[in-house]
Amino acid sequence: xxxxxxxxxxxxxxxxxxxxxxxxxxxxxxxxxxxxxxxxxxxxxxxxxxxxxxxxxxxxxxxxxxxxxxxxxxxxxxxxxxxxxxxxxxxxxxxxxxxxxxxxxxxxxxxxxxxxxxxxxxxxxxxxxxxxxxxxxxxxxxxxxxxxxxxxxxxxxxxxxxxxxxxxxxxxxxxxxxxxxxxxxxxxxxxxxxxxxxxxxxxxxxxxxxxxxxxxxxxxxxxxxxxxxxxxxxxxxxxxxxxxxxxxxxxxxxxxxxxxxxxxxxxxxxxxxxxxxxxxxxxxxxxx
Length: 288
Known about the structure:
Blueprint: H1 2-15, E1 20-32, E2 36-43, E3 46-52, E4 57-67, E5 72-83, E6 86-93, E7 96-116, E8 121-144, H2 147-153, E9 160-171, E10 175-186, E11 191-201, E12 203-219, E13 225-232, E14 243-247, E15 259-261, E16 264-266, E17 269-279
Parallel strand pairs: 2-6, 14-15
Antiparallel strand pairs: 1-4, 1-17, 2-3, 4-5, 5-7, 6-7, 7-8, 8-9, 8-10, 9-12, 10-11, 11-17, 12-13, 12-14, 12-16
Domain Outer membrane protein beta-barrel: 9-219
Keywords: Signal
Protein name: Outer membrane protein with beta-barrel domain
């Protein structure tokens, strides 16, 4: 143990002649990479798949980088993803319509090794984790009443039910991969600006979901609401569970509709970030 401590101490002392710390902030936009199926479009003409990634969207990052010498450094980053809408379901059938989208709202962190080819060009590679957040599904459904249903409510044929609800999906702890190639331009001895291309490789296995908002109205043919709040978050219709748990296996005789088989959803992306770097004064003789 003492020998390990001595080695670490020697390594630290050997790097303090250059030790340099930087912080940076950036924003950018990413598009999905290696898109997987996110949903379907269904019409009387057939069914069509939608592909994408929940990693698509705007992001912001706060990063701290420590350089041991003029080439190598270590980077810690915190980020937020404001994901773009991904189509989960779009149905256009006679008397029945559905519009369902989902989007990510996630916080993540990464730890990377940084290598500088020169004072301007650098690359980094490391591990990526999700710290928190959700995939939010927003659903709108319209279903025309049959004659029997219309008669039961005492309303004209052509009336319909209109349902809107929000369901939040949470995932298990994931581990992914991050890599970037960037270019920095020094403005003065303290500030630099940079642009970088960044890749995230990560998928999220679903753990559970919860309906957080739910409302069904009965609407007449002229658009007048005849019954408001027929179903609500406190009065869900039969077959709809407020909470669903995702598991790896289900028995053949399973009757618990609150359990479903787990799936992995894609978060991989390729994006461009633009930001500003602030360099703390270190002991480097190189102005960088």
